[in-house]
Amino acid sequence: MMSDLNIPFQTIDWSKIPRTEHQGETGAAYWQTVQFPGLRLRIVEYSEGYAADHWCQKGHIVYCLEGEVVNEQENGPDSVLTPGMSYVVSDDLSSHRSVTKKGVKLLIIDGDFLQLKS
C-alpha cells in the first residue's frame, strides 16, 4: 500500500550519519546510509584505486558529487561519470560495477520503485 511508503518532511545532516566500510576487489567503499521503507539513500565514497568485487544487478539512481568513476557493464559499453552527471537503471537490466583510479563521491538512491515491472 502506498501510504506505507510516505516519508514526512525531514532534513538529513550527512555529517551525523555513520560511515561503514566495504572492501572492494581493490580499495574500499565508505557508505553513509539512510534507510526508509522501500527506499535507501547513500553517500558513497570510493577510495583511490577502488574496484568493486562483484557485478551488481540492482537498480540505482547515481549522481556524481566529486571525482570520476567508470561504470563497467558486463555486456555493454563502459561509461564515465564526472561531477554533475548521473546514471539510472532498473533492477536486473544491467550487470555493472564501479571502478575509480583517483576516488569518487556519489549520491546513490535505490529502492522498490526500481524493481523491474513485467
Automatic annotation (TrEMBL):
Domain of life: Bacteria
NCBIfam families tied to this protein: DHCW_cupin (NF038084)
Name assigned to this protein: DHCW motif cupin fold protein
Lineage of the organism: Bacteria, Pseudomonadati, Thermodesulfobacteriota, Desulfovibrionia, Desulfovibrionales
